[in-house]
Amino acid sequence: MKRLTLLEHERYLYLKLAGVLMVLAGLAYLLHRPAVEPYGGTWLGYVLGTAAALILVGQLWYGVRRNAFGGRGSLRDRLSAHVYLGASLVVLATLHGGFQFGWNVHTLAYALMLAAIATGAWGLLAYLRLPRLMTENMGDDSLDTLLLKIADLDELARLNALQLSDETNAIVARARRETLIGGGVFRQLSGRHPDCPTTSAVRRLGELGRKLEVGQSKIHRELYAVMHMKEVLVARARQDVAYRARLEFWLYFHIPLSIAAAAALAAHVFSVFFYR
User: Fold this and answer.
1) DSSP character at residue 171
2) Measured CA distances, 21 to 27, 52, 62, 80, 91 (Å)
3) Given this model, what pLDDT does residue 151 score?
4) Tens digit of pLDDT for each residue in 218-243?
5) DSSP per-residue codes, 121-155
């Protein structure tokens, strides 16, 4: 049986709820005939603004419950509501303001909300796509298992290299000492290490192998095979680190933007009711 994603949860229950909410808001806006140009200060503007504010507060509370308290009920259920109701804010908030924008706290709150929604969409795409890629990359292995295998290959390469030239020993030692899994933010996210010592070692060992005498060629081929296997495992480990980093990196934008949007919303509400 096909496993449903959070987007398909309960036969798209929250998509339907969000859709009904947006359609009702759109119809009300089209039928609304205020005495002045539509804006947030009309009765419909207040209704839509209140609905949008309540949903935004609910979105923040979802994050607090999930990260701090766990909360009750289905995580998939709450996350599905978080996604669809969060997306409905684009329509509700836009209609609430009557498409009126300017250099003020009201537009700032709107812009921060859109930025938070955009980063949330980025995170949603990551969670829908990356776990499958992680499974394809790792198979039955874990990152810890790969690191242990790499360490074993390093030791085997060291022992093989002892029977060869000083240059070969230096190449193997450098690859063992300087090959990194992870690194800085951009290296983690990309999974790419263009100056990888192990890749350089494999390339150099291939060049040296063409110059060896017959008696040494067997040992050298064994060493080359070990280093090539290490290169493959290192690439898989780095790709796993990259996938994991991409699964979490968007949160460093989404959470601060959500908090900033809530603060701007509070300033927006305060200015509306106390400085009209």
Assistant:
1) H
2) 10, 11, 20, 16, 9
3) 96
4) 889 999 999 999 999 999 999 999 99
5) HHHHHHHHHHHHHHHHHHTT--HHHHHHHHHHHHH
Contact between 240 and 135 (Cβ < 8 Å): no
How many angstroms separate the Cα of 214 from the Cα of each of 218, 219, 223? Answer: 8, 10, 15
DSSP secondary structure code for residue 237 in this structure:
H
Amino acid at 202: V
Q: Are 107 and 96 in contact (CB under 8 A)?
A: no
Predicted local distance difference test score (pLDDT) of residue 240: 95
Per-position b or e across 237-260, b if 16+ CB within 10 A of its CB: bbbbbbbebbbebbbebbeebbeb
- Please, are residues 26 and 96 in contact by the beta-carbon 8 Å criterion? no
C-alpha 168/C-alpha 175 separation (Å) is 11
CA dist., res. 30 & res. 22, Å (int): 12
Measured distance CA(179)–CA(208) in Å, rounded: 21
Q: Which residues contact 110 (CB under 8 A, 6 or more apart)?
A: 93, 94, 97, 101
The DSSP 8-state label assigned to residue 2 in this structure reads: P
pLDDT band at 155, cuts 50/70/90? very high
Q: Structure pTM? A: 0.78
Q: pLDDT digit string (tens) for 87-103?
A: 999 999 999 888 888 88
Distances (CA, A) of 171 to 158, 166, 175, 177: 10, 9, 6, 10
